[in-house]
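Customer escalation, tier 2.

The customer says the design service returned an amino acid string that "doesn't look like it belongs to this structure." They asked us to rerun it and document both sides in this ticket. The original structure tokens are below, unchanged.
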């Protein structure tokens, strides 16, 4: 068997590094905070106080789609976001169309948030030579470079930052309450039903706060517990925050010196006795974090479409010195140029809302089809009053789209028609049934552990001691009628470097093929896994917990004091935090024959 052409035998997994509900919800919370500064400017001043009820009602309506998502998640393969769920229920055309819609929606929202961030930056530097659109494009370019070289904090740190921003915004809102003018609260417009419906349609962009937790579910520890809580936190928090902001904005006086580029922030800073630059900085940080989260949402959609063959696969190739695929981010930046420079901010927001409404419609349609044809699908949670709930949610998604301005509708329809043309002429012949998160090469993933089965985890490296270590694990498993999980951990900075992990896995193919042949000769079930993780100990511990292993078998080089253990600095962390027994096989590299 040729080492360079043979398929890697095993399962490729991502590390589960999101360990709390806050960490899972952080990406959506960042988008929610950015929208809190963007949406009041889109509805315009003076703000109708009835928009506060519109925000609550929109949250209730989107919660119907959320119920459908929760049922579909229970029987899902635990990878990917909205497009993966739609792909499972509606097939390739639905998965492509939802991914295509989310790609454009998140990119348009990135441009809108960057435009708003540029306006807030001009509050600090009113004499900047760059105009608003060009400054926004510069900010997007900076975000792209930061992602390519991974000059960004770890995902786990986003939660405390988002929480601090939310607390800061709450403090400014409370400080402005004594200075609000109740008389400035506007009466409802005679055309309130139409205006209210259009505002609710615009608020469909709230769905953007649900996509980051869905897309990262493969990295969540205990997803059945943390993921529903994170989704509910993002949707409920967004609805409540937008309602409060609209209510406060309806009572803000509108003086002549308010900035048109950052209307709500400027008005709130004038009404609050607290320092204005602090609020400007808080708003700018929230908008940039939201723009970055939307940019990564677009990157994930493009990465998924390319991985499936729906778009050119070469976009996913990783090239030094970049930490993420450069062609993918170059394509996103080029697509953002006309959006940022040539289209109004209001059109970008409305178009994004329409495309998110389209994605919600596909989720609800997938839910209806799933109940009809997927009778064997696992459903720990079932939507009540089926098919009424998904049918109502589907109808309201269509109403949201029709309530948007005609220009935004035309733009969205043209984008969807372009997507259909690409799908039937290019994507359909090339698409494969592969999905992001778990890639299987030659072998099926390890099955659920049977009660009473003894499972041994053997982390493998390139050292010569690994062959006797695996022989020992195979002998123990044979004696106890157990199983062996052969593991190699590849440190990868980000899930979007999945192709790089696959390349390294194929490069290290020989040892895993040998482990399969050895185990088969002893009739021992063996399941090879390659895990992408931030560190080797993290990968070992996560796999031991997921696979419910009873023993972790490690090696220790006695004579290499300065080098530590053969697998790196893993021995102490694994022993301290292991969820099962750990056996360490000590050897002297110069005296032990292999």
């Amino acid at each position: 068997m040729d080492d360079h052409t043979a398929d890697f035998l095993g399962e490729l997994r991502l590390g589960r590094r999101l360990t709390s509900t806050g960490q899972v919800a952080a990406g959506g919370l960042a988008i929610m905070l950015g929208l809190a500064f963007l949406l009041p400017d889109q509805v315009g001043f003076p703000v109708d106080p009835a928009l506060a009820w519109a925000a609550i009602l929109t949250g209730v309506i989107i919660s119907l789609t959320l119920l459908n998502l929760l049922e579909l998640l229970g029987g899902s393969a635990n990878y990917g976001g909205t497009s993966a769920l739609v792909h499972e229920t509606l097939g390739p055309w639905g998965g492509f169309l939802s991914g295509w819609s989310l790609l454009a929606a998140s990119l348009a929202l990135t441009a809108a948030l960057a435009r708003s961030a540029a306006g807030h930056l001009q509050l600090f530097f009113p004499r900047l030579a760059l105009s608003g659109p060009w400054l926004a494009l510069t900010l997007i370019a900076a975000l792209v470079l930061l992602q390519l070289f991974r000059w960004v904090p770890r995902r786990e740190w986003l939660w405390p930052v988002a929480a601090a921003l939310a607390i800061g915004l709450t403090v400014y809102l409370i400080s402005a309450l004594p200075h609000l003018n109740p008389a400035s609260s506007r009466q409802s417009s005679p055309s309130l039903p139409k205006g209210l419906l259009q505002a609710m349609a615009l608020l469909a962009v709230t769905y953007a706060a649900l996509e980051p937790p869905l897309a990262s579910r493969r990295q969540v520890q205990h997803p059945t517990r943390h993921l529903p809580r994170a989704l509910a936190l993002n949707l409920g928090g967004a609805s409540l925050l937008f309602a409060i902001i609209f209510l406060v904005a309806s009572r803000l006086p509108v003086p002549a010196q308010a900035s048109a580029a950052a209307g709500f922030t400027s008005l709130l800073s004038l009404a609050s006795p607290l320092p204005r630059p602090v609020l400007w900085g808080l708003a700018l940080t929230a908008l940039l974090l939201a723009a970055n989260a939307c940019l990564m949402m677009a990157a994930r959609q493009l990465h998924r479409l390319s991985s499936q063959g729906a778009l050119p696969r070469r976009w996913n190739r990783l090239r030094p010195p970049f930490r993420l695929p450069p062609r993918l981010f170059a394509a996103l930046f080029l697509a953002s140029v006309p959006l940022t420079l040539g289209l109004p901010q209001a059109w970008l927001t409305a178009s994004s809302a329409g495309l998110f409404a389209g994605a919600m419609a596909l989720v609800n349609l997938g839910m209806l089809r799933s109940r009809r044809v997927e009778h064997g699908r696992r459903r720990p949670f079932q939507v009540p009053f089926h098919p009424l709930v998904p049918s109502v949610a589907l109808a309201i998604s269509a109403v949201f789209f029709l309530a948007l301005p005609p220009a935004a509708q035309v733009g969205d329809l043209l984008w969807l028609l372009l997507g259909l043309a690409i799908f039937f002429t290019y994507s359909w012949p090339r698409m494969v049934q592969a999905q992001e998160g778990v890639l299987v090469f030659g072998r099926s993933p390890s099955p659920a552990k049977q009660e009473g089965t003894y499972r041994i985890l053997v982390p493998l490296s390139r050292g010569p001691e690994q062959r006797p270590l695996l022989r020992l694990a195979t002998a123990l498993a044979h004696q106890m009628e157990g199983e062996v999980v052969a593991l190699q951990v590849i440190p990868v900075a980000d899930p979007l470097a999945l192709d790089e992990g696959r390349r390294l896995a194929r490069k290290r193919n020989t040892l895993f093929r040998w482990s399969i042949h050895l185990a088969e000769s002893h009739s021992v079930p063996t399941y090879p896994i390659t895990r992408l993780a931030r560190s080797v100990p993290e990968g070992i511990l996560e796999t031991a917990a997921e696979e419910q292993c009873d023993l972790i078998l490690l090696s220790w080089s006695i004579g290499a004091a300065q080098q530590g253990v053969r697998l790196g600095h893993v021995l102490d962390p694994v022993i301290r935090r292991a969820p099962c027994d750990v056996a360490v096989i000590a050897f002297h590299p110069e005296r032990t024959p292999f």
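Tier 2 assessment: The sequence is consistent with the input. The chain has a mean pLDDT of 82. The radius of gyration is 26 Å. Sent an explanation to the customer and offered a walkthrough call.
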